[in-house]
Design goal:
This protein is of the alpha+beta class. Helices cover 34% and strands 24% of the residues. It contains 22 helices and 28 strands. The strands form 9 sheets. Strands 2, 3, 4, 5, 10, 18 and 19 form a 7-stranded mixed β-sheet that branches. Strands 12-11-23-22-21 form a 5-stranded antiparallel β-sheet, with helices on both faces. Strands 1-8-9 form a 3-stranded antiparallel β-sheet. Helix 3 packs antiparallel against helix 5, helix 9 packs antiparallel against helix 20 and helix 12 runs parallel beside helix 14. The relative contact order is 0.08.
Length: 667
């Protein structure tokens, strides 16, 4: 029987079904390959980009400035330090209402609401709200309860000495970079390495974790040690301020320099400024005039003219010069002296500061040798203090006769206060010019010395014999007949010179009626330990350096001799307690009384030895004076009155021996 079912032809739908299955399989296969290709593209080629986008969702990178290195004086007293304070930042995208938040923040932080709103409106994910804030301001912001805020530690520059030494140290800006002084000059050394801090947050923007905070020491800058002595800096600034205010001047400068090493122990400027609040100061008050400004010095230059003339043997110490009775015509110009003088020796020329005779000595010296003299003493070239903007001064060649005359007494040329102090240091140092310097050393946090300055001889300007002669002549300046008796000291020999310079008028191209009064000297004259320069700009009460600047010199010198424990130059009279009481002994004849006194005062001790005086119970200053009078070196421990001394009173020691004093302040 025939099977009709098997004999039927296949239906055409089965063929299309297989085709549809194949097409569907191809479609899904292509879709799978496309997805795989896309995954490969995203994972391989777009990996870095996508990683950055992902991290932007939950990671915030904040750059943390490095902690700047500290600045110290020669004894380790800090002049500039960095402390960690809070800074406030915010993610503006998380603020529900930027305008309202800006008003609340401005009120809490004492900011301008419109400026803060504009700043937050420009930023997308990060903006500083206020940097280097106080703890009270941090608590005020936290109390607002606004989302998206963060607090991070930043180093803030702090100047513990305030105005003292501010012109030398300088200051930094809000970004931590140096703006003035040594802060700017040693920016690379003081700045450490900036670091970045990562902050993580969840899907709602809440801060969960802060990581990557670096070690403070790893990002700290190098420490700078100065040659400045804090005590002498304080004394110099105080004396200078008093001199400027007494003379009603517009400004002033003072320098204390060690002539044997070239170290600058103090460099003062007036008016002063506080680098902790720089926004309140006038720009002119910030400038370090003593190092950066040049001026016409006046008669303090006469010492170098006389020294060079003696060295070149064009004059002798006993030569005399006719000073034209106060007025000397040179062409159509006339040189004047303050008084009418006739014949004067070089010593008297310096003592009374005769312009006319100084000009005649310069004539004998000659133009070329005068210019070379000034250049050899360091004028006309920068001293290399490492301060940006240091002036070099100007020594133009005196083509005209009147120019030669005026340059001999410090007009028609310019110099800086540091150059002047260093040049006088050469006279005090036996004719050897030392390079002046402010920075002793720079040391990184690991103890590696990056820079170290040592005493450096520049050149031998004049012989030691010539320098000694000139210094001896300059001692007469502070005598009663000289121009600066107010600079004389009771216990120490002083050598110096006054200066009263006319200030140039750049508009009228001549000289104005304004003056620059100065005094520069060395003490003790027989073996100078310091050179001190004081200048007062535009004094009103008097214009002469011997009246205006000399008293400030004496005040600084008195403090410097006690601080440096320099033995007196002159014999100090014994106190009355060292003599026998008159009523305790029977009356004696005059000769017998003298013999008794001499017997008490003098003592047969070995040459070079001295007995230690008793200073227990005395104030520190009195004890120091008494020990210095006995040619002994005091070493003070503490402050107040002396409670013990070593060696004991009455001990026989060598001259110059150190006596240790323990002082206590009584409550």
């Amino acid at each position: 029987m025939r099977d009709f079912k098997s004999a039927r032809a296949p239906e055409p739908n089965g063929k299309w079904l297989r085709l549809r299955v194949k097409l569907l399989a191809f479609f899904f296969g292509a879709l799978l390959m496309a997805a795989f290709g896309r995954a490969v593209f995203l994972q391989v080629f777009e990996r870095d980009k996508l990683r950055g986008l992902a991290q932007d969702q939950y990671v915030r990178q904040i750059e943390i400035p490095a902690r700047r290195g500290d600045i110290f004086d020669r004894r380790g007293t800090p002049f500039a330090q960095s402390v960690e304070v809070d800074s406030i930042w915010v993610d503006p995208s998380m603020l529900p209402d930027v305008k309202q938040a800006s008003r609340a923040l401005a009120k809490a932080l004492k900011l301008d609401a419109e400026d803060l709103q504009a700043k937050l409106g420009r930023a997308k994910r990060f903006a500083w709200v206020k940097r280097q804030v106080t703890p009270r301001e941090v608590e005020a912001v936290k109390a607002l309860g606004l989302p998206g805020f963060g607090f991070t530690k930043e180093p803030k520059r702090f100047y513990p000495q305030k105005e003292m030494g501010a012109h030398v140290v300088g200051m930094v800006g809000l970004d931590g970079h140096g703006l003035e002084g040594l802060e700017l000059a040693f920016e690379d050394e003081l700045s450490g390495q900036n670091s970045r801090m990562s902050g993580f947050r969840d899907a709602k923007g809440r801060k969960l974790l802060v990581t990557g905070v670096p070690d403070t020491l790893e990002r700290q800058g190098a420490a700078v040690t100065l040659t400045i002595d804090r005590h002498l800096q304080f004394v110099s600034e105080r004396a200078l301020a008093h001199a400027v205010e007494e003379a009603k001047g517009v400004a002033g400068m003072a320098i204390v320099l060690d002539p044997k090493t070239g170290e600058i122990l103090a460099i003062a400027n007036h008016p002063r400024f506080n680098p902790n609040t720089p926004g309140k100061e006038v720009r002119a008050s910030v400038r370090n005039r003593a190092a950066l400004d040049s001026f016409e010095p006046g008669s303090t230059m006469k010492a170098f003219v006389v020294a060079s003339a003696l060295e070149q043997k064009v004059i002798k110490p006993d030569d005399t010069f006719f000073c034209e009775n106060g007025a000397w015509a040179i062409g159509r110009h006339t040189i004047h002296d303050t008084h009418q003088y006739g014949w004067l020796t070089p010593q008297r020329v310096l003592q009374v500061s005769s312009n006319i005779c100084a000009a005649k000595i310069a004539q004998q010296l000659g133009r070329e040798r005068l210019v070379k003299t000034y250049q050899d003493f360091g004028f006309g070239e920068r001293t290399g203090l490492a301060l940006p903007g240091e002036a070099r001064g100007s020594i133009p060649f005196p083509k005209a006769e009147v120019s030669l005359a005026t340059q001999s007494f410090g007009q028609g040329m310019s110099t800086t206060a540091v150059q002047m102090a260093a040049a006088w240091g050469a006279l005090a140092n036996g004719g050897t010019l030392m390079r002046p310097y402010l920075v002793s050393k720079v040391v990184d946090p690991d103890g590696v010395v990056l820079l170290e300055n040592r005493p450096t001889q520049v050149r031998q300007v004049v012989s030691g014999a010539t320098a000694k002669k000139v210094v001896s002549m300059l001692e007469s300046v502070v005598a009663k007949e000289g121009t600066a008796p107010k600079a004389a000291m009771e216990d120490y020999r002083v050598a110096g010179k006054t200066g009263t310079a006319q200030k140039a008028d750049p508009v009228a191209r001549g000289y104005s009626d304004k003056r620059l009064a100065s005094f520069v000297g060395m003490v003790p004259a027989e073996n100078p330990r310091v050179v001190i320069l004081v200048m007062v700009d535009e004094p009103k009460t008097d214009v002469y350096g011997g009246i205006v600047a000399a008293p400030a010199f004496k005040e600084i010198a008195t403090a410097a001799m006690a601080h440096l424990a320099v033995p007196p130059s002159r014999e100090v009279p014994l106190p009355s307690t060292a003599l026998p009481v008159a009523v305790a002994a029977p009356p004696l004849a005059k000769a017998e009384a003298r013999a008794v006194v001499e017997e008490v005062v003098t003592e047969n001790v070995e040459p070079g030895s001295v007995r230690v005086p008793d200073v227990v119970g005395q104030a520190g200053r009195e004890a120091v004076t008494k020990l210095l009078s006995a040619a002994l070196e005091p070493q003070l421990l503490g402050s107040g009155r002396v409670v013990s001394q070593t060696p004991a009173a009455g001990a026989l020691v060598e001259k110059g021996a150190r006596v240790r004093l323990e002082l206590v302040t009584r409550q």
